Amino acid sequence: MAKRIIQINKNPVYEFGMISTVFGKDTQFCGDLHFRKSLQINGTFEGEIASEGYLVVGEGAVVKANVKANTVIIKGTVHGNIEARDRLEINPGGKLYGNIRTAKLKIADNVVFQGNCEMIKKHEKQEKGEAERAESAS
């Protein structure tokens, strides 16, 4: 009788779905990072991040980057400006040292936030995206 091997995906699951890629606690990454689906950083990152999906900064993670993504969830530390087109969450223990630009914002108790916040409307996000596409087409 052959043994049946079942692999269990240990990537975290959030209300937005399962994380497709995880940078472990021992991971150190430097540079520009672009991705489409989802990423959780549990180590350290320095550079720029751009995504059409969502980013999770895990507990103990340190990110030194400007971030543009649809959704950003912070449980660790971020030094940089964040543009979350749909939503930004700073969970307990999270630290953000930078400015925020987002449509929806959730800040829990026991967080650190030093910076400014600009709330954007859904139509403003669409207009900005259309303007950027028009500029790149020129």
Secondary-structure map with pairings?
Elements lengths: L12 E2 L2 E2 L2 E3 L4 E8 L2 E4 L2 E8 L2 E4 L4 E13 L2 E3 L2 E9 L4 E3 L2 E3 L2 E3 L4 E3 L2 E3 L2 H16 L1
Parallel strand pairs: 3-5, 4-6, 5-7, 6-8, 7-8, 8-9, 8-10, 9-11, 10-12, 10-13, 11-14, 12-15
Antiparallel strand pairs: 1-2
Task: Please give a structural write-up.
- This protein has 138 residues and is mainly beta.
- Helix content is 12%, strand content 51%.
- The chain has 1 helix and 15 strands, in the order βββββββββββββββα.
- The chain is globular and about 35 Å long.
Give a brief rundown of this model.
The protein has one domain. Helix content is 12%, strand content 51%. It has one helix at residues 122-137, and strands at residues 13-14, 17-18, 21-23, 28-35, 38-41, 44-51, 54-57, 62-74, 77-79, 82-90, 95-97, 100-102, 105-107, 112-114, 117-119.
Question: What attributes does this structure have?
Answer:
138 residues; mainly beta; two-stranded antiparallel sheet
Percent helix, as a range, is 10-25%
Note the beta-strand portion: over 45%
Q: What pattern of helices and strands is seen along the backbone?
A: EEEEEEEEEEEEEEEH
* Overall pLDDT score: 86
Q: Could you say which overall geometry the principal axes of the C-alpha atoms support? A: globular
Helical/strand content category: mainly beta
Tell me about the largest β-sheet: 13 strands, parallel
Q: Total strand count, please?
A: 15
What Rg do the Cα atoms give? Answer: 17 Å
For the termini, the CA-CA separation is 65 Å
Total domains: 1
Low-confidence sequence ranges: none
DSSP helix count? 1
